[in-house]
Structure formats: C-alpha cells, structure tokens
Write a structure and sequence with these properties.
This protein is of the alpha/beta class and 421 residues long. It has 3 domains: 179 residues, FAD/NAD(P)-binding domain, CATH 3.50.50; 133 residues, FAD/NAD(P)-binding domain, CATH 3.50.50; 82 residues, Sandwich (Immunoglobulin-like). It has 9 helices and 28 strands. The protein has a 5-stranded parallel β-sheet, covered by helices on one side. It has a 5-stranded parallel β-sheet with strand order 11-18-12-13-14. A hairpin with an 8-residue loop joins strand 3 and strand 4. It is globular, with a radius of gyration of 22 Å.
Length: 421
C-alpha cells in the first residue's frame, strides 16, 4: 500500500465512508484510501444484529453485520485501500491529513480531497446533568449494545432506560429477549424520539412500560446503582415533585441523543451548523473548505443507514469530480428552516440540478404540507421529530426560482381541507 499521490482520503469506514469510497472509485479516481481507527471496517453495524437495514439501498431486509459485509465486499472488489488501526489526529485546510497508525507509525498524507465520515457519539450522563451518586451500572445504550451483542455480557437484570431514541428502544427489546426485565422506558418529551416502527416492534409488542413526559431526578447507590427516582415533567420540562417515585434497578441505560463527531472538522477550519452540530454543506456535500466533503452522521444524525450510504456515495462522487478537475455547481442559495423545522440539509443549493434535501421537524403534526419557498410542495399525513423527512426536488421545480434569490425558507404547515396526499 502506497501512501503517496492519493486522490482521496476518506476518514472513517462506517457505511458513509465505505459508500463514499465506492462512489469515488466508480467515478474514475484510482487512488482512494480509507482510514479507520478500529480493527475492522463497518463502523457500529457489527453490533447492530437486528434487521431493518438495506430496505432502500439494497431493496432487502438485512441485519447490521450483513449490511456491513455487503459494503465491505464492494470495497474489496473495487481494490480500494483500507488502513485500519489508524487514528487521524488532524486535518489542515490544505488537505494535509495527520495520522498515527499501527503499521506505518506517524504519517502525513496530502490527497487532492478529503471526505469526513467520522459518524457520531452518544450523549452521556454528564451532558444532560442527572443528579445523584456515581455508581457503576450507568451506561449509554450503545455501550450496552456492544456488551451484549459483541462481548457477550448482560449489563443488568432489572433495567431502566432513559430516552426513547432508536438504540434505546432496540435495547429494551434486546434485554427482554436475553431474560432481563425492563422496568420502564422514560422519555422527557410527550412523544417518542425514535422511529415509529421501533416504538411498535420493540416497546408495544413486548409490553414494556413507556412513560412519556417523565425523567430521572436522582440516582441511588454507592458501589453499584440500586434505584432511580423518576418524576413527571410539566410543559417547561421541569420535574413535578409530587409525582416522584422510586424504581429499583441494577442498570440504567441512557439513550438521550447523538452528537456528530466534528473535532477533526474544526481542525480543518470547517464551519459547523449549530442546528445540526455538523458542517455546513452544499448539495454536493462539500463543506466551507474547498475539497473537504462531509457525509453521514458527521453531517447530521440520520435515522436510517440507507440514507447514510446514499449521502456518502453522493459525497464520494463529487469529491472524485473535483479530484479529476471538474467544476462543481456553485451553491449560492441558502435553505433556511421555517415553521416547525429544526434543520435542513444541505444548507445551500445551486438551484440548477435535482437535489435531495433532508428535513427534521420540531414537533409531531398530522396532515401537513412541506414547502420549499413557492416552487415546491409535498403533502404528508404525519411528521415526527424522530423520523427524517426526505424531499426529492427535481430541477424543473427549481427553474422557477427568480434570478438573484439568496435564500429559500422551508416550512411545515397545516394542510387545508380538501388537499390530498
């Protein structure tokens, strides 16, 4: 493996990174290198042994390891170089990638382009400030998933789960199947934070108590967790003292959100979007730094791995175009979140080409219209904060945008009577 004369370096070998490398290689660049800090490629797919992956990307219902195996096979078939056990320590704005590797020691790489696909990390107890003692037995849902599915350890027999993110609900089912008792799944919001299918298949189908508008106000235990105090919250998300009660448990799992992993992005001078926690990107997934692209959960947290792969492939294809000397479309129109919209990705578009935009709403609503300015509209039966809305906008709609338009507001508004889906 030569580390010289690289066309593209992909940082991270999860589904976004592998798809980016595949897209770039199939677009004609020869020297693509994936850097991965773990011992194997695939990201966290190896510990996600449940099914539901690949329904869009492969048109099949696969488990996480099956999905990773398919993508890894394509990487190998295309002859893409992969360097595992490699920790990237920095990226400069002029594409110098510094890394420490088991095989080559400390190296500096100078590719023509870089794709950031580092994924995201879990929010911890400290990030949300749960009071109480600091005993063993408090861990994130993703860590518990690895303990059970990869290492073969059961973290507890009587478990409370805080947060109704997808991993938390999936772990409620997994723990039940392994013989543990899930005392309750608590959610501070008045609605579930993950996919509806996970709420049905993992919570309701297994009869697991789901307590909405509840949170934890105290953790009990010295050496090991013994119980938690829970309480209902009011409209301002403040605990109501008279509703407090104690739940005995020997493990507490936290599924309280994910944070895009962007320390390397900041070292490269990439501008981040405070709404997503990821880089500001154009429709080509190029960041504010020319030649540096971002895709997958490092750009914004996705619900489905299929969309992660599609976004990674898009970033890889456009990174390859730039490396081969093509000019990318100038993205001069900003997409601005409007009514009931938390964020929109990409943040800027050219207005000339077909584009797919990803939208996340602030609150659940029924019978709505997703609007992009005055030129595009789509009716939806229901929207949920835990379910990403994907809008495919054809260029024929974009041609009606007046010349000189600098921004387009994306709104989610109620549908008037008589409008159909």
């Amino acid at each position: 493996m030569s580390l010289d004369n690289l066309d593209l370096v992909v940082v991270g070998a999860g589904p976004a990174g592998m798809a980016a490398a595949i897209g770039a290689r199939e677009s004609g660049v020869q020297r693509v290198l994936i850097l991965e800090r773990a011992e194997q490629i695939g990201g966290l797919l190896h510990q996600c042994i449940h099914n539901g992956f690949g329904l869009q990307y492969y048109k099949e219902d696969l488990t996480g390891p099956e999905y990773a195996h398919r993508m890894a096979g394509r990487v190998a078939d295309l002859g893409i170089d992969v360097l595992t056990e490699c920790m990237v320590t920095g990226i400069s704005p002029d594409h110098v990638v510094s890394a420490v590797t088991r095989k080559h020691g400390y190296v500096k790489l100078k590719p023509k382009g870089v794709v950031l696909s580092m994924g995201c990390r879990e929010r911890t107890r400290d990030a949300i400030g749960i009071p109480g003692t600091r005993p063993a037995g408090v861990l994130t849902a993703g860590t518990a998933q690895r303990y059970i599915n990869v290492e073969g350890y059961l973290p507890g027999r009587k478990v409370v789960i805080l947060g109704s993110g997808d991993v938390g609900m999936i772990m409620a089912r997994r723990l039940t199947l392994e013989g543990a008792r899930v005392v309750a799944v608590l959610e501070i919001l008045p609605y579930v934070g993950g996919l509806i299918r996970n709420e049905v298949q993992c919570i309701h189908d297994f009869g697991i108590p789901l307590l909405l508008s509840h949170t934890i106000t105290d953790i009990h235990g010295q050496r090991h967790i013994e119980a938690v105090t829970i309480a209902k919250v009011d409209e301002r998300m403040q605990p109501i003292p008279e509703t407090s009660r104690v739940l005995e448990c020997d493990a507490l799992l936290l599924s309280v959100g994910l944070i895009p992993e962007n320390e390397l992005s900041l070292s490269a001078g990439v501008v981040l979007d405070p709404r997503t926690g990821g880089p500001l990107v154009t429709e080509t997934r190029q960041t504010s730094v020319a030649g540096i692209f971002a895709a997958g959960n490092v750009a914004h947290v996705h619900d489905l791995v299929d969309n992660v792969s599609l976004e990674g492939e898009l970033a890889g294809v456009n990174a390859a175009r730039l490396a081969l000397g093509d000019e990318l479309p100038r993205a001069g129109i900003r997409l601005v979140p409007g009514e009931n919209i938390r964020y929109v990705v990409p943040q800027t578009i050219s207005g000339k080409n077909d584009v797919t935009i990803y939208v996340r709403v602030k609150r659940p609503e029924q019978k709505v219209r997703m609007k992009a300015g005055q030129f595009f509209e789509k009716a939806l039966r229901v929207v949920e904060p835990g379910v990403m809305v994907k809008l495919d906008i054809a260029s024929r709609y974009l041609r009606s945008i007046p010349e000189g338009t600098e921004e387009i507001v994306v709104d989610c508004v109620p549908r008037t009577e008589g409008q159909s889906v």
